[in-house]
Protein: RNase H type-1 domain-containing protein
Amino acid sequence: MKLITYTDGGSRSNPGPAASGIVIKDTDGKTLASYGEYLGVATNNVAEYAAIISALKKARELGATEIECLADSKLVIEQLSGNWKVKEPNLQKLWLEAWNLLQSFKQYKLKHILRAKNAEADAEVNKILDKETGSKKKSFGEDITPIPDCVPPHAKRVFKGVLFDTYQWEQELFDGSHATFEKLVRKASTDMIVTQGDSIMVLKQEQPGKPLYPGLPGGQTEPGEDHLIAAQRELLEETGYVAENFILYKSQSDGGSKLYFPVSTYIVRDAQKIQEAHLDAGEKIQITWVNFDDFLQLARQEKFTCPLWLKFDMYEALLDQIKKEILRKTIFGD
Structure:
């Protein structure tokens, strides 16, 4: 008998309160089991492994001889498929347990799916975490912030785009009259200043319709995704690098009064390459490494893409030796 498992794992604060979500179906799509398990304090990756281990055990109890495992954790799927190395000691034991369970089935298949396809397992995770932590986190696919804090509570979204939403509201003026105010809200993003020794990673990127330009690793935060998890995911996907040390440098809007664009920038120290990059069809990326002085000079390049406030910090470092040393120590930690 063949069964299909959908698994998800999540941790609030990473590490923090964590839970796994499991949904098991037969080949006709009938749900045979759907549940979540509280794991205590753990990381997202540990929770993802715990979910697939629990699902494999449950499927075996249900009499499965063939199994298809679907999960939105690319890390877990690629590691269990043998494509990515398992370097983290705390994951090696979990990887071995999951691998041994897979071998107990006559046939098995591992497949990475998008989070939108894994909504049921995601809901099980959040159901458990809501109960254990007393705080509500919306499942993937729900409107996470219907009315963002950057606009008044009575504002209405009049347009929903791929990246930008438009909000409008009636604003009382100083003379008592009213006018329609408007603001663009862009989906959140992450950027990273990645170091290896005394060098900083700079990506030479090319996108359809956009000539080659230098920039930092980073990308869009998915709905419901923690900023740190987004940064870790983007670094792995764009470059094939991982690191244990992610330090939040700044998190603020990179837009003016009419645009709200939340960007979280992390300093990532001593990154190590574990795989080849997995790029989208619309990306071409070449990894380069520069020293600190050359990194600062990038602020003078019009095409260099990074948060505007980071360019200000870089300009100040070029003009002021004290601020230059402060920024150098902030990035490299020495």
Q: What stands out?
A: The longest strand covers residues 31-42. Residues 188-332 form a domain with the Nucleoside Triphosphate Pyrophosphohydrolase fold (CATH 3.90.79.10).
